[in-house]
Design brief:
With 327 residues, the protein is of the alpha/beta class. Helices cover 39% and strands 16% of the residues. The chain has 2 domains: 200 residues, Rossmann fold; 100 residues, UDP-galactose 4-epimerase, domain 1 (Alpha-Beta Complex). It is built from 10 helices and 13 strands. Helix 4 packs parallel to helix 5 and helix 6 crosses helix 10. Bound molecules: nicotinamide-adenine-dinucleotide.
Length: 327
């Protein structure tokens, strides 16, 4: 059984490609390499260099590789930047989804797993976010992901046999292999790790939030665990099992920025006292989600603790720079 992974050369997509391989499914990666790297795609997996907005190329990929389903991961993921670049964000995430669905229709592919995001909730007013929490995205990015979910629901209503599921991610971190790392210049893990590798002191933005240690609390999950749940989602769709429309891949417990910094110091053996900077506008104090529904239906298990998350991210980033993995 063959699955097309759009964004398969990106941080999360490349992990999903490996998880599909491990499960004996045949992944095909499609990526325009705007942020992804061809070397993230393992040997033996076809990489089609194309844009998801090129409907003809996506259709060709689906038919030439006899694809059974699509895991649509490709997208523009920077919520902050999306405020300044709404049209770009909508073209990548909304028009991109329309194009993928047109290609699926043309090639008679009936199953789609979608990389959605916690940003569909905006700033939740509950301690723990569940899937039925109000949807109030606060950026073009969050809006574009929610529209992606609506497009899937509408296509499902309009198309006999078509089925989809949206997986809402929170803070995805770590590496399941030293060959793939998070390339994002905006995410906490790469920012802290790159600061230490450059000899700079990592910074905490805001220590006066209403949280136990005053720093923001987020829901960190390991990318390898996340990838396994995509395989479970693909297999459930293929088997015709009933699924909810959307799942939170959440940890149920949060970690503060200060706790992440402590874990980084411990794992790397580099003692540092973070610099304290002002709050960043728009950062909510706490976002933590429950993953119970995904645990029930999608083999969602937190197999890695924070030390694993930090250690694997540190190793993969060092490996990418050709640095020793033992020091
Ligand atoms: N990383 C996170 O914590 C997080 C959280 C929530 C949601 N997400 C979503 O998960 C998905 C993957 O995120 P990631 O962290 O792996 O980011 P990433 O930038 O590493 O991966 C995105 C991949 O998609 C490719 N791509 C982008 N636009 C494309 C296009 N128009 N056509 C073809 N390929 C294209 C990129 O080259 C890259 O390989 C995104 O859709 C993102 O919105 C990520």
């Amino acid at each position: 059984m063959s699955w097309l992974v759009t964004g398969g050369a990106g941080y999360i997509g490349a992990h999903i490609v490996r998880a599909l391989q491990n499960a004996g499914l045949e992944p095909v990666a499609l990526d325009n390499l705007v942020t992804g790297l061809a070397r993230f795609v393992p040997a033996g997996v076809p990489l089609i260099e194309a844009d998801v907005n090129d409907t003809t190329a996506v259709t060709r990929a689906l038919t030439e590789h006899a694809v059974d389903g699509i895991i649509h991961v490709a997208g523009f993921k920077y919520a902050g930047v999306s405020v300044e670049r709404p049209l770009h964000t909508y073209r990548e995430n909304v028009t991109g989804m329309v194009s993928v669905l047109e290609a699926a229709q043309e090639a008679d592919v009936q199953k789609v797993v979608f990389s959605s995001s916690a940003s569909v909730y905006g700033t939740p007013d509950t301690e723990i976010v569940t899937e039925d929490a109000p949807l109030h995205p606060e950026s073009p990015y969050g809006e574009s992901k929610l529209i992606g979910e609506w497009l899937l629901a509408d296509q499902e209503r309009a198309t006999e046999g078509f089925r989809s599921v949206s997986l809402r991610y929170f803070n995805v971190v770590g590496s399941g292999t030293d060959e793939v790392w998070d390339v994002s210049p905006h995410n906490l893990f790469p920012i802290v790790i790159d600061a230490l590798l450059d000899g700079r002191t990592p910074r905490i933005n805001g220590i006066d939030y209403p949280t136990p240690d005053g720093t923001c609390v987020r829901d960190y999950v390991h990318v390898g665990d996340l990838a396994i749940s995509h395989v479970a989602a693909a297999q459930a769709l293929a088997a015709g099992k009933p699924l909810a429309r959307a799942y939170n891949l959440g940890s149920g417990t949060g970690l503060s920025v200060r706790q992440i910094m402590d874990a980084v110091a411990q794992v790397t053996g580099i003692g540092f006292t973070p610099e304290i900077a002002p709050r960043r506008p728009g950062d909510p104090a706490r976002i933590v989600a429950r993953g119970d529904l995904a645990a029930r239906d999608l083999d969602w298990v937190m197999r890695h603790d924070v030390a694993d998350m930090v250690a694997s991210a540190w190793r993969a980033r060092r490996a990418s720079l050709g640095l020793s993995l033992t020091s």
